[in-house]
Structures are given as C-alpha cells and as structure tokens.
Design brief:
The chain is an alpha+beta fold. The protein has three helices and five strands, in the order βαββααββ. The protein has one domain: Histidine kinase-like ATPase, C-terminal domain (Heat Shock Protein 90, 2-Layer Sandwich), CATH 3.30.565.10. It has a five-stranded mixed sheet with strand order 1-2-3-5-4, with helices on one face. α1 packs antiparallel against α3. The longest helix is centred in the N-terminal third of the chain and has 17 residues.
C-alpha cells in the first residue's frame, strides 16, 4: 500500500478550524480507505484552493461503494462492516458541517472512492 500527498499551488491556505476534530475526520477517512484496499492499493490526499474554499480529497483505489450504500453512507448507524458502529462517517459529516463546510463522496465499484471536503477559507489578517 502507498499514500501520496499532493498540494496544488504554492499559496498557503488558511482555514479556521478545531484542529483535533479535523484530524479526527482525516484519520477516519484514511482508515476507511486503507480498509477498503488490498496490499497493492494506494491512497492519495490532496489539497487545493478554489475561489474562497479549501478542498481536501481522500482518494483510494479500493473496492468502491455500491450505489445503495452511497445514498446512506452518512446516515448514523449505517455500516457495511461487521465490526463497524456506523458512526464514523456521520460524525465526519457533522464535524465538517460545524466548520461551515460540506463533505461529498464519489465511488465506483472495483475502481475506488473519493471523499471531498469543502471548507471556507479564512480571510488573511
């Protein structure tokens, strides 16, 4: 397995956030990505700026998520894992929304999944 970190552009991106909670979001998304892959998979983390929004993507080359699960993926207590509680992604969504942002997911079975986080950029002072 491999992990890649990419930042698009040279300009620093500033957001106002609860650092620990956003770390929790990223850890959960990265953990899920690794759990969805075999030993040859890869996870790509990327950060870019579009207008007044910071965009973070966590992309994996795992098994993907079926369409039915995609419609429920952020529902509390929904899980496809035998050991899961179904709270991880719903908590991620709440944390991101509490920061004035949103989180989306795109997936294709057998290809992989991308979670995208959109967070407002802080004004420079």
């Amino acid at each position: 397995m491999a992990i890649y970190l990419l930042q698009h552009g040279d300009e620093a991106i500033y957001v106002i956030m609860d650092r620990d909670k956003m770390i929790q979001v990223l850890i959960n998304l990265i953990r899920n990505a690794f759990q969805a892959m075999d030993q040859t998979g890869a996870v790509k983390l990327s950060l870019r700026k579009e207008a007044s929004t910071a965009i973070v993507e966590v992309e994996d080359t795992g098994i993907g998520i079926d369409q039915e699960s995609l419609t429920r993926i952020f529902d509390p207590f929904y899980t496809t894992k035998e050991e899961g509680t179904g709270l991880g992604l719903s908590l991620c969504q709440k944390i991101v929304e509490d920061h004035g942002g949103r989180i989306t997911v795109q997936s294709e079975r057998g290809v992989g999944t991308t979670f995208t986080i959109f967070i407002p950029i802080a004004e420079k002072k």
